[in-house]
Amino acid sequence: MIHPAWLPAEAFRAIGSRRVLVQGSGPLADTVRDEIAQACARFGGVVVQDRKTAELILSIAGPGGEGFRLGRRGDATVISADGPSGLLNGFFEVARRGERAFDAALADERHVPALARRMLDHWDNIDVHPVMGQVERGYSGGSLFWHDGRPCDLGRVRDYARLLAASGVNAVAINNVNVHTTETRLLTDRLTEVAALASTFRVYGIRVHLSVNFAAPVILGDLSTADPADEAVRAWWKSTTARVHEAVPDLGGYLVKADSEGQPGPFTYGRSHADGANMLAEALEPYGGVVHWRAFVYNHRQDWRDRSTDRARAAHDHFAGLDGAFRDNVILQVKHGPMDFQTREPISPVLLGMPSTRLAVELQVTGEYTGQQRHVCYLPPMWSEVLRAVAGHVSGLAAVSNAGDDPFWTGHPLAQANLYAVGRLAWNPARDPIAILDEWIDLTFPGAASELRDILHDLMDESWQTYEQYTAPLGAGFMVRPGHHYGPDVDGYEYTPWGTYHFADRDGVGVDRTVATGTGFTAQYPPAWADRYESLATCPDELLLFFHHVPYGHVLHSGVTVIQHIYDTHFAGAHRVSAMRDRWQEAAGLVDPALHARVTERLDEQQRSADEWRDQINTYFYRKSGVPDAHGRPIH
Ligand code: BDP
To answer: Which residues, if any, are the signal sequence (predicted)?
Structure first.
């Protein structure tokens, strides 16, 4: 059995019990008509042809666009859409509001998305990869798109497309950025699979993108080089891209991870990333496609005796000098922080420092470093901070999806809220992330008792902050087990070539990234930001160890020492998890028993893991520093 996610059939009662008129033609208008016909069949409403008697009117009033107006005209609620996508978006807005959309006092509102491209990236492989499994960093079962090397049931994909459309997403990349040989073939002899997925997503206004391997001309055996300056290579991409568009005329474009963690790229040929990206952009240009080129480029084979190469600097060092060098249809896709999806990082300076380049911010919904869906960790409060900081600098958002073939869609049923919220925030980054949480609760459990709504809210609203409390402190990051990245291992990466260090010794901890005495990373920021991070007097506590190496006795702005903060937050975090676990028991009988059981099992594991984090982190820092806990709690 597949469990419903947000907007189960019951959530369409308000629409489905009314007299509804849909005006407009084309595939998206047909989708809206189908949706309404189904809702009416269930709840006794009718599809009408006449404006006079309609209680809900949805019409395409403009030539194109994703926006719409919502308001009352006489006794009807009216959606006037800018174009077909706007009609679909307006329909889901009415669905989300339920009865409130039919309030006689409803004010006129205009809705337009803040970010033009709101994309989910799937790290799905067709085959099961020997180390990474089928979905790289996937914690929700297998792929929604492939099973046993073959395409999956498209009915489930259609349901997924519908969920995404209802949250505001309008693009997906269907395969892993680490493109293995089988997946490289999606560009050529497996194109029919791409076309089938694109048709399924298309009816919900979502465009499909493909991750491509930069060395595809070589891997597929056609050429001996992938050099972007080579005419034969350029011609190969043009003809291959032309064939792709015969099969999928509205392909969104390509997504590329190049020269990173073993993936091929232009550096092999002494070319720049602008050379590489522009070659693909030129091939896509005639079809209106874009290249999402990732800025996640760093040396993962660092010599750990030479700590002068700071991984945090890498993206800016590689890309800032290329500002203005990319074609118009290149979008530089930048991870939100300078490192790698940690629980707490500053904003990537690349997002603030490339005014002449189209930018998209990349988030990770899947939660590789935030509990891997074994822990409750509602991430939108973090994303909201990021999106507010980069407002005006980015035009797109790409988020690594957390959905898979799990019966609950996400491995942790409550992690659905993250998937829902990423779309809503991409549409409107100014929204309160906690209001979005409540919206998700209402839409996923329509008609739920207020008691259940309160329990869900209490479990999730500060869960990111709780997770932060019991894991790596004060922005230090990592401290996870190498490879799979789950659970604590304080020195797991400390003496490896990956560039992720905390530099704890008997005297202190943290990475000195200042200009004055450290790696100079702070200078990559605009002056006001650089000054704030450079100075101990103004650096925010939560990022202290990201920017500074300090003694354990350093006093935080909060008034406690670093070492005491570590002890206090780790005891508090693990304690909060036990309160969450108790709280969830009050939901027994209020939700589907299978869902209750799954969340219970996950909370048991979260408790075990939080206790383990608390004990290892506290013990580690007690033994390094020799400073006892001021409150005498057990640390050995
Ligand atoms: C890291 C993951 C790795 C991804 C990489 C990426 O551990 O599996 O391939 O990010 O974003 O966080 O490319």
So the answer is: none
